[in-house]
């Protein structure tokens, strides 16, 4: 059995302590603001387990958050702060819907092609800020944030002028063909085939990052771009490759969310999944193998917060406090640094 190394053990401890502090703070706040604090805590922590349908909601959300977190983790691993996956999610969902409405194809072929096209659109969108930075030195953070709104309004233009269903009571496309929908894999829930796809995608990313030359070069570029250049790595190509891979994953996520969860494309604004991906990537320390755990955790507390909000007098905004504290503590590299130093000294003494 493979032993857990020191760094992994410490990160598990640090993450666990961050969660406990955040939950303790939330507990104190709930005690102060709620007339039914213990019921609120019960709904927050146990609400997602009340029935299969509600636990299914957790898995459904975790699928999308995993795509988002994986996309951002790949991009951040190259030390690039590109937030275009947010726009990639929206654009790929819209374009996938337009594709299946324009080209009614047989089952399996229709969603497969729509997801691939969505992935390619996502890759193109996320590469644009990288190219702007390489060519003119534009900040990828600023250009990607602006690009998100450009692609959203461009997609909305085509949706509203070509694919909007006038008989629908809200702004949405025509009903998507049944042949384009992802199959449901667990009866009694809306868990769809996207679960299988995201598990496979995570596996591929883990192998890519840990076992391939390109993954090694990507990590080295992210750690120290000057050293990477010195040892002969084409850092510009690696950075663009990382943005393309991250964008492709985000594009897949947007397409899968649309074809798996909805019968129409109906997003009226940016869905926020790209920004959620930042939270997941931070919690996962930019490591693809930890992304599903971070995504499940975030999905669980959000579904629990929704249940708490509908069953008690505590609003779901409470979850923002929990998220904020966890992210601050996990992202703070000096948090528990003294504890890490003591653990390291103890380990050296024991081995000595």
Characterize the structure shown.
By secondary structure, the protein is mostly helical. The protein has 14 helices and no strands. The longest helix has 28 residues, at 6-33. It is globular. 44% of the residues are buried.
List strands and helices in order, with pairings:
Elements: H1 6-33, H2 37-46, H3 52-77, H4 85-102, H5 109-136, H6 140-163, H7 194-211, H8 213-223, H9 225-230, H10 235-261, H11 273-283, H12 291-311, H13 318-331, H14 337-351
Give me a quick take on this structure.
The protein has 352 residues and is mostly helical.
Low-pLDDT runs of 5+ residues are none
Shape: globular
| Helix and strand composition category | mainly alpha
Largest sheet: none
User: Whole-Å distance between the termini?
Assistant: 23 Å
Compute the number of strand runs.
Answer: 0
Count the helices. How many?
Answer: 14
- The ordered H/E elements are HHHHHHHHHHHHHH
State the helical fraction.
over 70%
| Rg for CA atoms | 22 Å
DSSP strand content? under 5%
Query: Quick check: average pLDDT?
Result: 89
């Amino acid at each position: 059995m493979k032993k857990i190394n020191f760094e992994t053990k410490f990160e598990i401890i640090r993450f666990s302590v961050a969660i406990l502090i955040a939950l303790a703070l939330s507990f104190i706040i709930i005690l102060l603001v709620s007339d039914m604090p213990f019921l609120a805590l019960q709904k927050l922590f146990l609400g997602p387990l009340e029935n299969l349908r509600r636990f299914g909601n957790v898995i459904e959300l975790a699928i999308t958050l995993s795509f988002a977190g994986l996309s951002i983790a790949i991009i951040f691993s190259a030390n690039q702060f590109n937030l275009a996956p947010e726009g990639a999610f929206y654009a790929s969902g819209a374009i996938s819907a337009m594709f299946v409405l324009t080209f009614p194809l047989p089952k399996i072929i229709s969603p497969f092609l729509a997801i691939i096209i969505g992935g390619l659109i996502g890759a193109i969108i996320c590469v644009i800020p990288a190219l702007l930075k390489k060519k003119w030195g534009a900040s990828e953070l600023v250009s990607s944030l602006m690009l998100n709104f450009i692609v959203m309004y461009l997609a909305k233009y085509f949706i509203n002028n070509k694919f909007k269903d006038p008989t629908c009571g809200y702004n949405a496309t025509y009903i998507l063909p049944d042949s384009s929908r992802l199959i449901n894999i667990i009866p009694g829930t809306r868990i769809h085939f996207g679960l299988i796809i995201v598990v496979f995608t995570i596996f591929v990313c883990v192998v890519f990052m840990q076992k391939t030359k390109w993954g090694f070069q990507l990590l080295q570029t992210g750690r120290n771009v000057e050293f990477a250049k010195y040892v002969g790595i084409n850092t510009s190509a690696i950075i663009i490759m990382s943005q393309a891979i991250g964008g492709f994953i985000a594009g897949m996520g947007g397409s899968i969310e649309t074809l798996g969860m909805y019968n129409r494309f109906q997003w009226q604004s940016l869905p926020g999944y790209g920004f959620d991906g930042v939270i997941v990537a931070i919690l996962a320390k930019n490591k693809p193998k930890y992304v599903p755990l971070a995504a499940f955790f975030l999905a669980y507390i959000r579904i629990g917060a929704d249940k708490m909000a509908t069953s008690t007098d505590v609003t779901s905004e409470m979850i923002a406090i929990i998220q904020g504290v966890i992210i601050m503590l996990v992202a703070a590299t000096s948090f528990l640094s003294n504890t890490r130093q003591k653990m390291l000294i103890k380990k050296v003494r024991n081995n000595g």
